[in-house]
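TASK: fixed-backbone design
INPUT:
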């Protein structure tokens, strides 16, 4: 369906807002955080622009998370023509601020001691932003202006549950890898890297399918 964003129908902008947020947080943010959390000892031999492969992949996914979140934030303000005093707006604003600051927290390079603090802030604020974003999507489903079908609750819950199960698998693989020990060859990937890659592929395919299904339901008349 071709949509003219210049039409004065606020529903179109609301749906664009929802579309951007679903892609950003269900797909890109989930994969980006997975790569940073579980793949630092994978793709060891690969280097891009002088850096490790996992770091490049993480930055690419999180850049699109940041970009789509910013676009979605701007779009909803255009549609609403100002501030709306409800839980979804408040949580959304906090999520946007945390998301907007994430690249700054990740890029700052102060002294070694301060760098550890900034990294901790980067990780904690990133996880907090994800939790708030997911929570806010559930809050959005209760808004009358969103006009979302009730079936989205189940589909969205399934997407979150699927991602949670994937993280359980990753943690099991990480535990097994730690028990096996660090490879003696520093250029060799950690144990069970192949299974981590397979699990990542399953996660990507699954989250992509959930993303498409959620967006299709969002735009369904």
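OUTPUT:
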């Amino acid at each position: 369906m071709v949509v003219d964003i210049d039409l004065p129908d606020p529903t179109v902008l609301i749906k664009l807002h929802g579309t951007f947020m679903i892609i950003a947080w269900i797909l890109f943010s989930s994969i980006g955080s997975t790569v940073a959390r579980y793949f630092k000892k994978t793709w060891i031999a690969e280097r891009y622009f002088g850096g490790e492969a996992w770091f490049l992949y993480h930055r690419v996914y999180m850049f699109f998370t940041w970009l789509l979140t910013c676009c979605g934030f701007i779009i909803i303000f255009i549609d609403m023509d100002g501030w709306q005093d409800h839980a979804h707006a408040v949580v959304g604003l906090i999520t946007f601020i945390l998301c907007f600051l994430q690249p700054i927290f990740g890029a700052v390079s102060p002294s070694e001691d301060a760098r550890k603090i900034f990294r901790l802030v980067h990780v904690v604020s990133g996880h907090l932003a994800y939790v708030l974003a997911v929570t806010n999507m559930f809050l959005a489903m209760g808004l009358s202006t969103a006009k979302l079908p009730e079936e989205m609750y189940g589909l969205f819950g399934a997407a979150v549950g699927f991602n949670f199960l994937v993280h359980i698998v990753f943690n099991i693989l990480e535990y097994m890898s730690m028990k096996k020990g660090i490879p003696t060859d520093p250029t060799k990937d950690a144990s069970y890297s192949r299974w981590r890659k397979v699990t990542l592929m399953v996660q990507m395919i699954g989250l992509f399918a959930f993303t498409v299904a959620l967006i299709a339901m969002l735009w369904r008349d």
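COMMENT: The helical segments are 10-38, 53-80, 87-107, 112-140, 151-180, 193-219.
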